[in-house]
From TrEMBL, chain A:
InterPro entries in UniProt: SBP_5, SBP_5_dom
Matches recorded under Pfam families: SBP_bac_5
Protein name: Solute-binding protein family 5 domain-containing protein
Span list, region Disordered: 22-59
Stretch forming the signal peptide: 1-21
Residue spans of biased composition, Polar residues class: 37-46
From TrEMBL, chain B:
Family, as annotated: Belongs to the binding-protein-dependent transport system permease family.
Protein name (Swiss-Prot/TrEMBL): ABC transporter permease
Assigned GO CC terms: plasma membrane
Membrane topology of the entry: Multi-pass membrane protein
InterPro entries attached to this UniProt entry: BPD_transp_1_N, MetI-like, MetI-like_sf
GO biological process: transmembrane transport
Location(s), subcellular: Cell membrane
Keywords for the protein's UniProt record, in alphabetical order: Cell membrane, Membrane, Transmembrane, Transmembrane helix, Transport
Transmembrane segments: 12-30, 114-139, 151-174, 194-213, 250-270, 306-326
CDD domains with a match to the protein in the record: TM_PBP2
Organism field: Nocardioides silvaticus
Domain of life: Bacteria
Boundaries of every ABC transmembrane type-1 domain copy: 114-319
Automatic annotation (TrEMBL), chain C:
Family: Belongs to the binding-protein-dependent transport system permease family.
A GO CC term assigned to this protein in UniProt: plasma membrane
Statement: the UniProt record of this protein carries the keyword Signal: no
Protein name per the record: Peptide ABC transporter permease
């Protein structure tokens, strides 16, 4: 429900049939240079260890002006500025781009692609042979907003804080610091277990990290503010309200989940920063704004310097029909949503395949208020997208359009019946049951379309309305009485960075948190373990191959659409770009006010 | 009078306590663990059963309910130290606890938000009376005429549309599309009275016009009745001007039902206006409360419940006193 | 006092006029109810409003028959047959293609359901829900208010305490906390949930709606019981029940009618507002739900939003004006 935060609040108006609540990297907002999914490549820029400050000048960019950013309901925005607890698209998008620097970061290169560049570190880090040790060197001349220099000890302290799973449970540390660092599982951060932690040490300006298992992606993980400095005297609880800036902007006012005001930080030195700029005089972020109000504002004169992080389908159409196309941008998200049959209750492969042909993709989207090919897309709108597990743009990904070369997946009731017959079921004999979000008319309408599609495809359907909160309440709770009734569940996932290692295992590994259908195949688990041990440059292709195998041999999930987000921005906003590197948010490093 | 007050205050306090216990229990014994939403939120939706137990322990849900309620209630009069997991928070009296969501003191949040809600209440309630009673009296004096029907019908049409739609469309059309009204925002009165006024003007008008319908109807109804009374005819027969009769005599008794509604409405306004605050993005008590209910932030819910309960009780007492002033035949007992 | 517009005549003017002298002769022998009805019959606004209310009642009662007569239904169709999947707007009919005789009110954007069918069914749900809630809360409110105000003493204390307690209880918190409990209990039986969620909403609206009426009536009664005619009735030993019903109640018609005719639309709106907050009726069409669904379309497809809004507004105005007319007609002090 809270698409941008990785949690679901009880009652909210804007629940999607399948919410993105599960996104590891958060959620929702994505912007892209243009409107095709295929161009939403999230990482094609690769790595650029030589990049140095200042950030390249943007053609036509002017300085000055103030920008207001509205995050519409259900995005309730930032509730903590603490680097260790940041792990959602809205939060990271804003704070990584403007306030909190870390060892590495992404920036848009000349081709409009995002490349990994050094940030606080002099380069992208030096790993040892088997990626069990990484060494980063802190640049000279980095200062806090107070004018004090940033030290390597402070970076180490910041990293150590990310191990505190209790105080910073929402942070990425639980997923990456604790499992990978040597002894990380038993270390609970400097507040509980003291600062003595041999896996994170300093040597002059160097920060040395030791890992219990190979972690070739430490340079990517270092984009998180959690892998950045925190003053040694930062309090465990209150730092989230008054975090110090190392970036081009500092916090003037912060009310959790309500408002964040940023003003330029005069201690920031552009010479040290290859990615960020200081073009705007003031940023005001407002969260949980009424969606219609946000849209009307951005299209009005009063909103000429306003940015809206997520517009609705109706707003998009309004912009199209009123000649405001220049003020919207549709961008892909590195996220995929799925229907996931319960693997024990729906054991027949043909039935799971039939379900893919009986899902009336475009009509379900339409009834749910999603625009086919604009806010949702997959193989039915563009063959190049396919129906696979991995989102477009992920390294090693190959398009997968279904198990049968002669019949690519689309809504095809006859094919569905055929498959059911192969499995030995007459039309109307096999009952599928699912739970849907009944708290909005769109949710109900989409469920009705879905039921109709399944019935045309030869299934009997039982659907259960749910209004008490997020559908994940049901899908992830085997004790829930609805869970016991249904055999179709769902899940959705966003990448943390462009590697299938952040995507496949959470969904198809036995016992994984978002493997809601309890998919479990020993051969798949073994293969994933094998890939993790492969040389780094072979992993991507191996993951891509595994995706093909899993989908063709087991069809554990049915791809119900890749997500795209619609951004709106006022007539005076220039340099608006899609920061796919954080999973999709306005790129605050390049925006400026046209003077 | 004195014994009346004592009695009302006693029964009022009892009500406040009862309501707060009821809400507490409702959360405590609801179908899902009260710690579940928070656990989900704080663990990126990875709330395992073990985590949930940990959260229940941390928030005190594994203790007996009376013990926790006792701690909370005691905080109203005495300083307390709140322990959440490994962190301690000092909470000086009157302590309403700390918000589960952002660990801030509920009392501080309240102090920040209450002025917003009070500002809304002041403007809206003034318009209720001003518009409602004026239109009602005018309609009553022209009872049965086209003017009467038109006045009544026009206020009705407005208030028959669901409120959130009225508020939303007014904001979209009058502020954003056409800029007739400045953008709705709250500026403290003492900082800049003019900005305070202009920032809330549209909000007041929407609330006032919408809410005034009830006052129009009640005051028209009782005014019609009052104008039919013998004492009014007597007054007219004495040669008093109609205007004087209406304002000095009839209005007084016609206001009795109006005052009842008004007292309650003020109390409700003071406890927050959820839709208004949500649509106009004003950070008052109502939005605070509804957001807190959604994530089961019990200390905040308790605080907003207290605001409502105390406002209702106080306003009820005031209304009864005003009754006795308006209508000398009503005894306070 | 202005002339009752009835005298200015409508279509059956001659019939009325011919009755007039006769009726006047009989004045002495007519009951108060009869007088009231005669007055109402002659008030064209009352007649028109009554006709409108009746029309809505008929629509609500015979929604299914009307729909099949018009040839529409609320069944799910494949959305792409009726709407454009990229703009979500209908392929035929409003807002872009004029009138579509197959769908008099057009079809819904997104899923293509027929708006007219949904409108009549929504009328049914909303009217039924609001009527039930208004009748129940008014009845409870009047009964308790009357007792409290007239009897005073311990009864008054208890009832007043209950009123205050319920008023003090935060409605939205209560509703938001109760709804999931109910939905959770019947979650696995969607057919029952459909009815339960409806009656639960009636119950919620009643439980949190009766106090205003009760307080109002109590306040009025407090004033009334000091009045000469009530005192007189007591002195001559009229039983309490009779005083309440014969002396008090007629004087309370004004507030009762007003609160009923205000309550009804308020409940229709409340249903819409609650469904905006996620506590709505599950599995039925309702005006509140259509309004919620249509709000984002207010600019691009205003007809979609207008249908339920106009429905509510017309109904509400008619009910209120009718209520006023009835009130006036029953008022013994109204001299004509």
């Amino acid at each position: 429900m809270k698409r941008t935060k990785a949690f679901a609040a009880g009652v909210s108006a804007a629940a999607l049939t399948l919410t993105l609540a599960a996104c590891g990297g958060g959620g929702d907002d994505d912007e892209g240079g243009d409107q095709g999914f295929t161009s939403g490549d999230t990482s094609s820029g690769g790595k650029n260890p030589e990049a140095v400050g200042p950030a390249p000048e943007i053609e036509g960019a002017t300085e000055g002006g103030e920008i207001t950013v509205l995050a519409p309901d259900p995005d309730d925005g930032i509730d903590s500025l603490d680097p260790a607890s940041l792990w959602s698209v809205t939060d990271n998008g804003i704070l990584q781009d403007l306030v909190l620097r870390s060892l590495t970061t992404f920036r848009q290169n000349d081709a409009g692609e995002y490349e990994l560049v050094p940030d606080l570190a002099t380069d992208l880090g030096t790993p040892n042979e088997d990626f069990t040790e990484w060494r980063f060197t802190l640049k000279d001349g980095i200062k806090w907003e107070t004018g004090e220099p940033v030290t390597a000890e402070e970076v180490a302290f910041g990293i150590k804080r990310s191990f505190d799973a209790d105080a910073f449970a929402t942070g990425p540390g639980t997923a990456y610091s604790k499992p990978y660092f040597d002894g990380g599982a038993d270390y609970n951060g400097p507040y509980t277990d003291g600062e003595d932690f041999p896996a994170v040490t300093t040597e002059g300006n160097d920060i040395i990290m030791k890992f219990g298992k190979p972690f070739p992606e430490m340079d990517y993980y270092s984009i998180f503010p959690a892998i950045g400095p925190v003053p040694l005297d930062a309090e465990i609880n209150d730092y989230r309200l008054n975090a110090l800036s190392t970036g081009p902007y500092k916090v003037e006012k912060f009310v959790p989940n309500q408002e964040l005001v940023l003003v330029p930080n005069d201690q920031w030195d552009p010479e040290t920063d290859p990615a960020r700029r200081q073009l705007v005089d003031k940023y005001t972020f407002k969260f949980d704004v009424n969606p219609q109000v946000a849209a009307e504002t951005v299209f009005s004169d009063a909103g000429s310097t306003t940015v809206v992080t997520a517009l609705q389908g109706t707003d998009y159409n309004k912009a199209q029909s009123e000649g405001l196309q220049d003020q919207v941008l549709v961008g892909p998200q590195p996220c995929t949503s799925f229907v996931m049959p319960n693997y024990t209750k729906v054991p027949e492969l043909e039935v799971r395949q039939a379900l893919a042909y009986a899902y009336d993709y475009e009509n379900i989207w339409s009834a749910g208020g999603e625009l086919s090919g604009v806010t949702r897309a997959n193989g039915v709108t563009d063959e190049e997208l396919g129906f696979g597990l991995l989102p477009p743009g992920m390294a090693g990904r190959e398009v997968w359009n279904g198990p049968f070369d002669d019949a690519p997946i689309t809504f095809d009731p006859e094919k569905s019946k055929e498959l059911l017959a192969e499995a030995g079921f007459e039309p109307g004999e096999y009952e599928v049951s699912f739970v849907y979000d009944a708290s909005t008319p769109e949710g109900e309408a989409a469920a009705e379309q879905r039921q109709r599609g399944y019935e045309e495809g030869g299934f009997a359907v039982q659907k259960y309305p749910y209004t008490a909160g997020s559908l994940y309440d049901v899908w992830t709770d085997p004790d829930n009485k609805l869970y016991k009734k249904i055999n179709l569940l769902g899940t959705a996932w966003c990448q943390d960075w462009p590697s299938a290692a952040t995507f496949l295992p959470p969904i198809v590994e036995t016992g994984a948190a978002y493997n809601t259908g309890q998919f479990s195949e020993a051969s798949v688990d073994d293969e994933m373990e094998r890939i993790r041990q492969l040389p780094v440059d072979e992993q991507a292709a191996a993951w891509g191959e595994l995706e093909q195998t899993v989908m063709t041999d087991y069809q554990p999930v049915i791809n119900t659409g890749y997500y795209q987000n619609i951004f709106g921005f006022g007539s005076q906003i220039g340099g608006f770009a899609n920061d796919t590197s954080v999973g999709g948010a306005p790129d605050y490093r390049t925006i400026y006010v046209e003077q | 009078m004195f014994s009346f007050l004592v009695k009302r205050i006693l029964s009022g306090s009892l009500i406040v306590v009862l309501v707060s216990v009821m809400i507490y229990a409702l959360f405590w014994y609801g179908p899902k663990s009260p710690a579940l939403e928070l656990c989900r939120r704080d663990t990126n939706n990875r709330c395992t059963p073990a985590k949930l137990v940990e959260f229940e322990d941390r928030l005190g849900y594994s203790n007996p309910i009376y013990e926790e309620y006792g701690k909370w209630a005691k905080g109203l009069v005495a300083d307390r130290t709140i322990i959440h997991g490994t962190s301690e928070y000092d909470c000086p009296a009157p302590c309403l606890g700390i918000s589960y969501r952002d660990k801030s003191l509920v009392t501080d949040q309240f102090k920040e938000r209450f002025p917003v809600t009070v500002s809304l209440a002041v403007g809206a309630s003034a318009l209720y009376l001003l518009i409602g009673v004026t239109v009602g009296v005018l309609a009553a004096r022209r009872r049965g005429s086209v003017a009467d029907k038109a006045l009544v019908a026009s206020t009705l049409v407005f208030s028959s549309i669901p409120y959130y739609l009225v508020a939303l469309l007014s904001f979209l059309i009058l502020t954003l599309s056409t800029s007739v009204f400045p953008e709705a925002k709250y500026v403290p009165f003492l900082d800049d009275p003019l900005a305070w006024f202009s920032g809330l003007l549209l909000v007041w008008l929407v609330m006032g016009l919408y809410g005034a319908t009830a006052y129009t109807r009640y005051s028209r109804g009782s005014m019609v009745e009052a104008l039919g009374e013998d004492y009014v005819r007597t007054a007219r027969a004495k040669g008093l001007r109609m205007r004087t009769v209406v304002t000095k005599h009839a209005l007084r008794s016609a206001l009795v039902p109006v005052i009842t509604i008004f007292g309650l409405d003020v109390a409700f306004l003071l406890s927050g206006t959820v839709f208004t605050e949500k649509i106009f993005s004003l950070e008052g008590i109502g939005k605070w409360g509804i957001d807190a209910v959604n994530i089961k932030d019990l200390p905040v819910v308790q605080a907003t419940t207290l605001v409502l309960a105390v406002s209702v009780v106080v306003m009820n007492i005031i209304v009864d006193i005003v009754y006795s002033i308006l209508d000398p035949r009503v005894r306070l007992a | 006092m202005a002339l009752p517009a009835g005298d200015i005549a409508v279509h059956d003017e001659t019939a009325d006029a011919s009755l007039e002298p006769e009726a006047r002769k009989k004045i002495a022998g007519r009951s108060p109810t009869r007088i009231a009805f005669d007055r109402l019959r002659k008030d064209p606004i009352a007649v028109i409003c009554f006709a409108i209310v009746l029309l809505f009642a008929v629509i609500a009662l015979f929604a299914d028959q009307i729909n099949s007569l018009v040839g529409v239904n609320t069944e799910v169709v494949r959305a792409s047959e009726r709407v454009n999947l990229v703009t979500l707007l209908p392929l035929d009919g409003p807002p872009n293609h004029g009138f579509d005789p197959e769908h008099p009110f057009g079809v819904a954007p997104g899923d293509g359901t027929d708006n007219f069918a949904v409108w009549t069914k929504g009328c049914q749900t909303s009217l039924f829900l609001a009527t039930m809630a208004a009748v129940l809360s008014t009845t409870i409110g009047v009964a308790l208010g009357l007792l409290a105000g007239f009897l005073g003493g311990i009864v008054d204390s208890i009832i007043s305490f209950m009123i205050d307690l319920f008023l003090t209880f935060p409605f939205l918190v209560g509703a938001l906390a109760l709804a999931p409990i109910i939905n959770d209990r019947w979650a696995t039986e969607p057919e029952k949930l459909r009815d339960v969620s409806f009656w639960a909403l009636v119950a919620i609206l009643t439980i949190f709606g009766w106090m205003t009426v009760a307080r109002l009536v109590r306040g009025e009664v407090l004033a009334l019981r000091e009045r000469e005619f009530v005192k007189a009735a007591r002195v001559i030993g009229v039983p309490t029940r009779r005083i309440l019903v014969r002396e008090m109640l007629p004087n309370l018609i004004a507030p009762i009618i007003i609160s009923f005719s205000l309550g009804l639309p308020a409940y229709v709106s409340a249903e819409a507002g609650l469904s905006y907050l996620g506590i709505g009726i599950i599995g039925r069409e309702s005006w509140g739900r259509t309004i919620e669904q249509a709000t984002p379309w207010w600019e691009q497809y205003p007809q979609f939003l207008l249908a339920p809004v106009v429905g509510i507004a017309v109904l509400v105005v008619a009910l209120n004006l009718l209520g006023d007319a009835i009130r006036d007609a029953f008022d013994p002090k109204t001299r004509r």
